[in-house]
Design a protein that fits this description.
- This protein has about 110 residues and is mostly helical.
- The protein contains six helices and no strands.
- The longest helix has 25 residues.
- It is elongated and about 60 Å long.
- The protein starts with a helix and ends in a 7-residue tail after the last helix.
Length: about 110
């Protein structure tokens, strides 16, 4: 009976950690990019698209490296940093660079 309890707790913890890691490379960068774009009065749609492209590129490259099997698992995880491309670019942009950042439309 104790074995079943330990297995249930360990399985639940593993699923929780994997869900948190998945959210950290997909949902959290998009949320942070939208908050930063809104604070700087940049176009939310533009920066959500930039962030989505970074997420797709990072996850795709990590998948390709992992499927190749010729690099260690630690190196295959490194492209996941691309998922934070949009928020990183927004941090570097000043508020007055609306040519790059875009402007908030009247509907936003």
């Amino acid at each position: 009976m104790a074995d079943m309890l330990v297995a249930t707790v360990v399985f639940t913890l593993i699923v929780a950690v994997l869900l948190a890691a998945g959210a950290a490379v997909t949902l959290l960068p998009a949320y942070v990019a939208l908050q930063l774009a809104d604070a700087r009065r940049f176009s939310s749609a533009r920066w959500l698209a930039v962030t989505a492209a970074g997420i797709v590129a990072g996850l795709g490259l990590a998948h390709l490296l992992h499927q190749g099997g010729q690099v260690p698992a630690v190196v295959a995880v490194l492209p996941l940093a691309f998922t934070w491309l949009g928020p990183a670019m927004l941090v570097l942009l000043g508020e007055n660079l609306t040519r790059i950042g875009g402007r908030t439309g009247r509907h936003e």
